[in-house]
Amino acid sequence: MALVYFSENNNIPGPSIFEEPKSFVPLPINFWPILLSINILTWILSFLLFIHFFEIPDIYDYLIISTIINSFFWIYEILSGYSSGIYCNETIFRCRLAIIFFIISEILLFFSFFWAWFHFLFTPSELFGNRWPPHLIQQFVINPFGIPLLNTVVLILSGFSLSFANQSLLKQKRVKFIWGTAFTLYLGIYFIWNQLIEFQLSACSINTTVYNSIFYILVGFHGFHVFIGMCLISLNYFRGLYLNDLNGKNNLSLIGAIWYWHFVDGIWILLYLTVYISGCHKDCNSSLLR
């Protein structure tokens, strides 16, 4: 439960987090995060079911609709309170802190997958010929200088375009902000499209070897996080295009989207260097250079 305080005029937030609050107003309990957490847990269980049995649960469509609805109403309630000016500086600081903790939790998630990758990289099993990638699939390893390198350039450019959009918003240049976010979304769509092409051209599946399992989980989860980042950027794009309620002060949602997108960029660079580069050798599949 978050707390906000007001000055003597109830319509004016307290002037500073360093001043003594004069009265506290508890915000109502929000159940949307709990429902969203249940949805995410069900997503994970469904993913495990798909890996082991290659069966998509019957509730898959329900999960998509429920996740979209829960996310929309949760974000709507947060932004409604933020735009109305009822949040004091301390509450805004805690919202930013919550975003940071969320990104840290995502870093720990990827850390577990990278741990598995480095474990087999430095201590390869005899079952794989004491080599990583396993000897039998080395000719099918994806060439890092084809689509992966192109996607690396695309994500780096998207980080610059999103930063350009943020600077345009701070300078109150609304048109440039809209174009910057739109170009970032285009680059994100192009990245996911290239990723799908890469998966289609791959000769191995997620259950071929442990190498392919870790590879597809790492790259697939990153692609899913790119999609989440695009949803956050789309929210700010439509706020700037139709609602016109974004400005240099009322930009909490944009800050969260920027931090998250730079996190996605950083994970991909690490993924490219460790998974694609370290897993490649002289017999890499050159067909992906096209």
UniProtKB/TrEMBL annotation:
Protein origin, superkingdom: Eukaryota
Protein name per Swiss-Prot or TrEMBL: Cytochrome c oxidase subunit 3
Species the sequence originates in: Phagocata gracilis
UniProt GO MF annotations: cytochrome-c oxidase activity
Transmembrane segments: 31-53, 59-76, 97-120, 140-165, 177-193, 213-238, 259-279
Biological processes per GO annotation: mitochondrial electron transport, cytochrome c to oxygen
Signal peptide: none
Localization per record: Membrane
Gene: COX3
Topology in membrane: Multi-pass membrane protein
Coiled coil: none
UniProt keyword ATP-binding present: no
Domain (Heme-copper oxidase subunit III family profile) ranges: 20-280
Gene Ontology CC, one term: membrane
Keywords of this entry: Membrane, Mitochondrion, Translocase, Transmembrane, Transmembrane helix
Family (UniProt): Belongs to the cytochrome c oxidase subunit 3 family.
InterPro entries: Cyt_c/ubiquinol_Oxase_su3 (IPR024791), Cyt_c_oxase_su3_dom (IPR033945), Cyt_c_oxidase-like_su3 (IPR000298), Cyt_c_oxidase_su3-like_sf (IPR035973), Cyt_c_oxidase_su3_a-hlx (IPR013833)
Free-text function comment from the UniProt entry: Component of the cytochrome c oxidase, the last enzyme in the mitochondrial electron transport chain which drives oxidative phosphorylation. The respiratory chain contains 3 multisubunit complexes succinate dehydrogenase (complex II, CII), ubiquinol-cytochrome c oxidoreductase (cytochrome b-c1 complex, complex III, CIII) and cytochrome c oxidase (complex IV, CIV), that cooperate to transfer electrons derived from NADH and succinate to molecular oxygen, creating an electrochemical gradient over the inner membrane that drives transmembrane transport and the ATP synthase.
